[in-house]
């Protein structure tokens, strides 16, 4: 093999001498590859989605119409296996459905969809991160960090102006993925999120509602919320859903990346909660089961699922071309 390589190398000068055009072609190819490698190394962001506002609104209307068709199919499925919601089990034995079959992520994100953070538990699917990659006042809230901050680090590295506000009473800060060059764009408190405030002197765990945290931070709008709070999501989100539905106003955030923990919830209760979520303006554009729990306990149902939602009410960077 070594002799063959030497023979090939020795032949190259003679080839270039007899065919000088190869020299030009090789040189152009190498230069092109060089600049492509530079571009790949320094530009990991998507281009801003080239929608006109009229075209984007038309697309959103079409996919919303398709989503309403799915709601009708959900009612048909309830009738088939119920026929009422109270007669349906979340995870029945020897039946051809689980609760997740009634709530597919059928809304179409109008932009690129990217996995942000690591593969497996911890990473989330985000719609159109390119829409906020250069936004100066971009705000991200992260509830439930544990020891993995790959999602938060990925958001920061892919954007120029986003700041991440992290909350988790089980740890003292972000994980090692938040490096020194990213830390100045983060804020952390060992608090939890809940439906009502509970952070007095007698409260061991300091709990804040989402609205209280926004007021404390001086925020009126959040671009992305990531939430993995082991079942506390229902109370925390129900409170803000009610506040904004009653006020007839759009929710104060653009996207929600949520790990859902059904626990002991009944199908009837969960359906009602989901319909409130829809009424508030959230539409699921991605879902995947989280089956890690099944590795630790035998004979438990798949009670965890990851969902990503887009807020289709109001005006935000993900649903309107305002820039």
UniProtKB/TrEMBL annotation:
Q: Which InterPro entries match?
A: Methyltranfer_dom (IPR025714), METTL24 (IPR026913)
Methyltransferase domain sequence ranges: 103-291
Q: What is the lineage of its organism?
A: Eukaryota, Fungi, Dikarya, Basidiomycota, Agaricomycotina
Q: What is this protein called?
A: Methyltransferase domain-containing protein
Task: Identify the stretch annotated as signal peptide in this record.
Answer: none
């Amino acid at each position: 093999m070594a002799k063959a390589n030497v023979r090939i190398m020795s032949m190259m000068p003679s080839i270039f001498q007899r065919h000088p055009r190869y020299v030009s072609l090789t040189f152009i190819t190498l230069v092109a590859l060089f600049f492509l490698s530079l571009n790949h190394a320094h530009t990991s962001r998507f281009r801003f989605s080239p929608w006109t506002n009229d075209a984007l609104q038309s697309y959103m209307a079409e996919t919303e119409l398709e989503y309403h068709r799915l709601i009708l199919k959900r009612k048909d499925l309830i009738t088939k296996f119920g026929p009422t919601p109270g007669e349906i089990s979340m995870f029945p034995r020897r039946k051809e459905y689980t609760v997740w079959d009634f709530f597919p992520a059928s809304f179409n994100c109008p932009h690129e969809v990217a996995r942000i953070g690591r593969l497996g538990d911890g990473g989330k699917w985000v719609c159109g991160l390119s829409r906020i990659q250069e936004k100066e006042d971009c705000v991200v809230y992260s509830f439930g960090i544990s020891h993995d901050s790959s999602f938060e680090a990925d958001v920061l590295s892919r954007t120029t102006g986003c700041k991440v506000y992290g909350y988790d009473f089980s740890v003292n800060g972000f994980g090692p993925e938040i490096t020194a060059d990213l830390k100045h764009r983060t804020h952390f408190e060992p608090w939890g999120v809940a439906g009502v405030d509970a952070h007095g002197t007698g409260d061991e765990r300091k709990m804040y509602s989402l609205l209280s945290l926004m007021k404390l931070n001086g925020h009126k709008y959040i671009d992305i919320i990531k939430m993995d709070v082991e079942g506390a999501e229902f109370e925390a989100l129900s409170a803000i859903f009610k506040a904004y539905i009653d006020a007839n106003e759009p929710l104060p955030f653009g996207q929600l990346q949520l790990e859902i923990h059904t626990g002991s919830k009944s199908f009837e209760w969960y359906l009602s909660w989901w319909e409130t979520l829809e009424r508030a303006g959230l539409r699921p554009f991605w879902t995947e089961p989280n089956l890690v729990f099944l590795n630790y306990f035998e004979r438990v149902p798949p009670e965890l699922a990851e969902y990503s939602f887009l807020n289709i009410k109001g005006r935000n960077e993900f649903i309107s071309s305002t820039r």
